[in-house]
Amino acid sequence: MSLSRRTIGIILIVSLLVVAAGGVAAYRGWSDLQSAPGVHTAEVSQRSVTSTVKGFARARPSVEVAIRSDVSGEITDVYVREGDRVEIGDPLVRLRDDDYEAALQQQRAVVLRARAERAAARADTVRAGQNLRRQQRLFDAGMVPERDVQNARANLEQARARVEAAEAGIAQARALLDRAEEQARQTRIAAPMDGVVTRLNVEVGERVLGTMRVQGTEIMRIGGPEAMEFVVAVPEKEIRQVDLGDRAEILTESFDDRVLEGRVVEVANAARMGEGAIGSASEPEYPVHVRVTSPHRLAARSQPIDIVAESSNAGSGPPVLRPGMSGEVRIAAASIDSVVAVPIGAVTTRNVARLDSAAVAKHGRLQRTPSGRADDLRRVVFVLENEIARMVEVSVGLRSETVAQVSGSLAPGDTVIVGPEAEVARQLAPGSTRSINTHTEAQAY
């Protein structure tokens, strides 16, 4: 049976409409797929998390002694230079001693004079004793009155008193002589310990000050013998995590390809602020001393060199640290095992009060219901399920440089969005459509 032209036209029109509708539907699906931005995701893992406290610090000897002058005078000789190795007793500096030698000779003369006065007093005592015995015999014979005996006895007592006064004068003179000798010796300053001259503050011809009651001029510093440490300023909010014995890593500017190991050996009991602070003075900081435990040497001006060994093992020996070298200290302050963790970039905040309540109810998992306040900030991560971003409120525990411990409706194996940063920080909302651009497995971060 043949169809009429009108029927054939209607069939063609319907067919075209069906094809057009299918094309529109296909385009809309493709357009929706293209409109879903790609994001970087990572797998939630179960791992150990170690909290790291970082800070900038400078190297200094763990033991450093300031050499100061105990007497005043002009420097005539300096026997060392900065960087020299010294041993205990080695001469360091000599001051002009003319005045001190003159005072010493004068005091010796005072001692000699005091001794002569004592000898004279003793001789007077002998004579007074002889006179008393003679007067006593004459009195017994009735030849002199009793008054003469009493006068002779008084003269003997006076002579004995002069002897005691002379003894006291000698003791005083000897004490002053000892002081003069000590001052003369103090014009020659020697090393009190083995070490390296880390700082030299004076030159020949300069004058230094020093008295018994006033702190003398700092002439130099000696550090040693080998151990170095870095003193890092830890902010108040992080100091509670740091404890004695904590391990640390030190990355110095001079040895950027080598990580030095260290230990926390001292934590300040009081904060430093203002001029006494090590870093920024905007908040309280606590100086923490990290001793370098890796093999190292304290820099000295002259080192014994084995040319053959140096050429065959260039760069393989222990590093030579110099006072003032800068470095970044990373203290492994606290650690916890087998916890749910996500990359640090996955954690962000959202004000629940400013989000679509229907979207939050459908695509959000909160630990507590919305408060209704204008500001209801929550710590959240976004879990990607079937290209839908679902907001999950979390509590954050320890943080390392790369990961954070979290607790909430998360489980190992979940997929969280970690980037781009602008997406995580501001643009993601519950129910957002996103496609995976790159994905990181749990063992890869």
Question: How is this structure best described in words?
Answer:
By secondary structure, the protein is an alpha+beta fold. Among the domains are: 120 residues, conserved putative lor/sdh protein from methanococcus maripaludis s2 fold (Beta Barrel), CATH 2.40.420; 90 residues. It is 30% helix and 35% strand. The chain has six helices and 24 strands. A hairpin with a 6-residue loop joins strand 12 and strand 13. The protein is elongated and about 185 Å long. The two termini are 73 Å apart.
DSSP strand count: 24
- Write down the CATH class of one domain: Mainly Beta
User: Which CATH architecture of one domain is right?
Assistant: Beta Barrel
Note the overall shape.
elongated
Rg measurement, Å: 45 Å
How many DSSP helices? 6
Major sheet size, sense and barrel closure: 6 strands, antiparallel, barrel
Strand content: 25-35%
- Low-pLDDT segments, ≥5 res: 24-34, 304-315
Q: Portion of residues in helices?
A: 25-40%
Elements, N to C (H/E): HEEEEEEHHEEEEEEEEEHEEEHEEEEEHE
Roughly what is the average pLDDT, rounded to an integer?
85
Q: Helix/strand/pairing class, anyone?
A: alpha+beta
Would you give the CATH topology of one domain?
A: conserved putative lor/sdh protein from methanococcus maripaludis s2 fold
Distance between the termini: 73 Å
Strands of the widest sheet, in order across it, are 2-11-14-13-12-17
